[in-house]
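User:
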Amino acid sequence: MQKFSDRLILAALAAVGVMLVIRQKEVSAAVIESLKSCVYRIIPSLFAMTAVSSAISNSGLVSGIFSSRKLDANILTAFIFGNIGGYPVGAKLLSEMVSVGRISRDEAEEATCFCYGCGPGFAVGIVGAAVFGSTEYGLAALTAVVLSNATLYATYIFRHRGVSSISPLQPSGFSTKLMTDSVSSAAGSMMGICAMIVFFSALKAILFSCFPRLSEMKYFPSILEISNLSALSARQGVSLVTAALLLGFGGLCVIMQIFSVVSGSFSLKKFCLSRLISLPLTGGYAFLMQLLLGRLGIEAAAAEKIRLSRSPSLIPIICVMAMVFITLCEHRKEAVSR
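Assistant: Predicted structure:
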């Protein structure tokens, strides 16, 4: 059975390789667009937050504040930044905690189920501005996702009483080394995330070029890659519930990013299964938020068209990739010297 699956994967990869040559024009355009997306959207919104959240987590200050309140400060930190920092941030923090022994693999597997959110910047910028033309709608969609995660987190606290089986990290405060390590770690994460986005954009280009009708399906592009949600609008019949459900799912590309960030440090089976519970909760909360917006008389306005860049220049992309590469090389040299 294993040999058959390996052969099937090999055949699929060979087919993709052939299509990369045949559909080179479409793939090249998609890759360049994805690189622009990384430079102008992904890195600005995630890099700083990833570095800051990692520094706060590794400083142990949160553990010192909540250790006396019978709350697992490690999980709480991942929950907070996982919901305000963007999709991969929570998984990144949990992976780091597992690698240094601050939480167990089992705890990380459960925590990743509710440390998964789009963040306010993405919700307001994409759902609010692009889809509904209303900041309130973006915040409402974000609230629905956060409330769904909070419900799962509350269930986790009730089952585990919020106490970790591993001793909390002792507060050490901030230092130059802490910030340097956090920035280097964030750079590595951005490299993995952006590489996954670029690879996925190439696969998407092949899929859409072979099956053009898939791109015409209203929600399918957003299911593949969540930033495609910006192409939709309320005038197309998109409801707040639908937008919130898409945010709660995050898209296949984001889920692949989560796998890339976790990098085998713990299993993501529970995370995938938890979507069966999280999404209905998100839809229910979004429906209540939609009723509330209606009661307040807040309606969707004309949506704003979001452009990644005013210039087709690739110089910013080359500069950012060079900086990330240099940072990673320096980080590896320090690791070897130790």
